[in-house]
Amino acid sequence: MDDPVTIVIPHYRAEVLSDCLASLFACPDWPIRVIVVDDGGNAPSLQAAVARFPQVEVLTNPSRQGFSGTCNRGLEAVQTRYAVLLNDDTRVEPGWLRPLVAAADADEAVAACQPKLLSATRPGYFDYGGGAGGYIDRLGYTFCRGRLFDHLECDEGQYDRPVPIFWACGSALFLRLAAVEQVGPLDLEFFMHFEEIDLCWRLRLAGYRIVAVPASVVHHYSGFSLPPNSFLKSYLNHRNNLVALVKNLPARRLAGLLPMRLILDLVAVVAYLARADLRLAPAPLAAWVWCLTHIPNLARRRRASRALCRPGQDERTDGVLDGSLLSRYYLRGQRRASQLIPEGAET
Fold first, then answer.
1. What is the pTM of this model?
2. Residues with Cβ < 8 Å from 298, sequence gap 6 or more?
3. Between 20 and 30 A from 328 (CA), which of 57, 178, 260, 275?
């Protein structure tokens, strides 16, 4: 009999939880154990879901832990070889789990996999948060196969090739538990946003691979945790991006990159002001203020991450754009990830 996979669902009051569970139990292609970790105070959405699906196990946080803490609570309860961190605002397609297990079984170096994430609100388009897998450029800006900034691509099969990627989206993140135990779980201090990118980065430093598995398809609603244009969301994205760079980059590259990133963040402030977006304009500066006032915190977290680095891992280029996403998007007008890193270039 196939070994089960544990599905860990962090939950914070999203009404679509029952729909997520219904899609899981309607797809019996692989045995699963489902754990819902409640971060929302036993809201009606959870009560309704448990009444409908009594086979679900529920763990309740004593106080709000955020995405990272809630996922880690679930991972601590996992006793299987593989687990999936699955958002409560997702819907899986039939046959979604078997390709992920097959990809991990085929290569012990694969520590994380991402399915193809499609938008549940814009049929036929990629999901904003994860698309078909995540890349990063030389300046530390992340992007997805299927989404550059606010430009979403229609899924026309252009990313149906399994390829190595830099990071896999936390909305549907398949993990090898032994690898996670080696590098440590999600960093609690991120609270939410960028924590999965940081985890994937640490897995890479330890010598593991991250891969896209487009034969697995998951639909994602997005936006149930924080409104897309909120100050907090923008602030966390700016701050946590900087924190991930400080934690994981080698010292020489970090020293050369941070001054450039400061200039670019000042440009971002001007851009927000130019379009009269007064809510988001302070976010980049607030992120820098936090980092500059938490240097001991960052130094401690950096030591832990860099201690994982095996020889040669800093030089890896899989999933890395050798250039600037900003210049390719705004100056050269390239709107598709396949124009930046052509499909088939990764091996």
1. 0.95
2. 243, 246, 247, 291
3. 275
Q: Left if phi > 0, otherwise alpha if psi is -120 to 50, otherwise beta: which for 164?
A: beta
Domain boundaries, the chain: 5-220, 231-340
| Tokens representing residue 315 in the block | 């030089």
Alpha helices in the chain (DSSP H): 17-25, 44-52, 66-76, 97-106, 177-183, 195-205, 231-248, 251-274, 283-292, 295-306, 325-326, 337-340
Concatenating the DSSP letter of every residue in 252-280 gives: HHHHHHHHHHHHHHHHHHHHHHHTT-TTT
Residues 295-298: contacts with CB under 8 Å, at least 24 apart: 297/189, 298/243, 298/246, 298/247
Apex 90 CA angle, 76 and 213, nearest 5:
80
Within the chain, which residues score under 50 in pLDDT?
347
Output the six-digit token pair for 43. Answer: 């809201």
Q: Is 123 within 8 Å of 308 (Cβ atoms)?
A: no
pLDDT in tens, 229-264: 789 989 999 999 999 999 999 999 999 999 999 999
